[in-house]
UniProtKB/TrEMBL annotation:
Keywords: Glycosyltransferase, Transferase. The keyword Chaperone does not apply. Residues 21-146 form the Glycosyltransferase subfamily 4-like N-terminal domain. The keyword Transmembrane helix does not apply. This is Glycosyltransferase. The lineage of its organism: Bacteria, Bacillati, Actinomycetota, Actinomycetes, Pseudonocardiales. GO terms for biological process: carbohydrate derivative biosynthetic process.
Length: 340
């Protein structure tokens, strides 16, 4: 029997694997590698250079990092899919991009779409408009509950290759915020909680887009001080060092975060997570074992102080048991078979 042929469509912004920021791209890269190991025939549709074992069709010779969020790279990437998919002739298309699913209607093969972002509001309207031309996969049960009427085919948690994350049992005495400079991620709340806890905070965050830069200058800069260190955007090596060394990751999201792969990355390093009870946080963090799920800044501060009571080995073990890439690939393989 010939192997299942999958066209994997990544977003048009970063190469796979990404060198720094790029949670979707990191997840796609790990998934592709694992599916290839399992014998599937994968062709990646992406940008720039290919660092995965899949065959590769680029829509742009260079990644579009400096144009992140602009319309034209997204729609141009999508517009080229019809010809690309026709030439590849896969059994199934797995799309991780925003505009790509618009090209699904009329295909002879099914299109599976992983919803990496919001699924309510205008995004819910978008997915409803696509109807049964796509089969949607949620990244958490919390995300799926926001719009249960969409054309869901399954729920698959994002995952990482846990063995590639360095484990460290003895932690340094700082808390870490790792993410993006925007109101939804809760940097001011992280700063306030760390200060109440009396624990230094290191902030490593993507701050490239004009809105992010404006938010940083207006909101974050006035809050920095000797106890709150701004590090800028972390590359993979820096991220691994920060995550393995921190006493905890602070994740005070102020919106219904669909997943938050950084929580799993922290756990893989043996580092507990303290976060607000929003979105997928209660689904990912086992309260009192791999971190604490909190309802306000004061309980967040108390949790930061208590994280040295938690076992780094428990964090690592739970990442291995629940969020390793092998399980994610197995679940996607089951999704693929269910729509063929």
């Amino acid at each position: 029997m010939s192997p299942l042929r999958i066209a994997m469509v990544a977003p048009p912004w970063f190469e796979l694997p990404p060198t720094a920021y790029g949670g979707i791209e990191a997840m796609c890269s790990d998934l592709i590698e694992q599916l290839c190991l399992q014998g599937l025939d994968i062709t990646l549709v992406g940008v720039g250079r290919n660092g995965t074992p899949a065959d590769f069709v680029p829509t742009y010779d260079q990644p579009n990092e400096s144009r992140l969020g602009q319309v034209l790279p997204e729609v141009t990437h999508a517009a080229e899919l019809t010809d690309i998919i026709e030439k590849i002739d896969p059994d199934l298309v797995h799309d991780h991009s925003l505009a790509g699913p618009l090209m699904a209607r009329g295909r002879t093969m099914p299109t599976v779409v992983t919803a990496h972002g919001p699924v309510n509001g205008e995004m819910g309207r978008y997915y409803r408009g696509l109807g049964d031309s796509i089969q949607l996969v949620a990244v958490s049960d919390a995300q799926r509950r926001l719009s249960p009427d969409l054309n869901w085919i399954g729920t698959v948690h994002n995952a990482v290759r846990v063995e590639r994350f360095p484990f460290r049992e003895r932690k340094d005495d700082y808390a870490l915020f790792l993410g993006r400079a925007c109101v939804e991620k809760g940097i001011p709340q992280a700063i306030e909680a760390a200060r109440r806890a009396g624990i230094p905070l290191k902030i490593a965050a993507k701050c490239r887009e004009p809105e992010e830069k404006a938010y940083f200058e207006r909101v974050i800069t006035p809050l920095l001080g000797p106890d709150v260190e701004w590090l800028g955007e972390a590359d993979r090596a820096m991220k691994a060092e920060l995550l393995q060394s921190a006493r905890c990751l602070v994740f005070p999201v102020c919106w219904e975060e669909p997943f938050g792969i950084v929580m799993v990355e922290a756990m893989a390093c043996g580092t507990p997570v303290v976060g607000f009870r929003r979105g997928s946080v209660p689904e990912v963090v086992t309260h009192g074992r791999t971190g604490y799920v909190c309802d306000d800044v004061e309980t967040l501060a108390q949790a930061i102080r208590k994280t040295d009571e938690l076992s780094p080995h428990d964090c690592r073990r739970e990442a291995e048991l629940r969020f390793d890439v092998g399980m994610m690939a197995d679940r996607y393989a089951r999704v693929y078979r269910s729509v063929l």
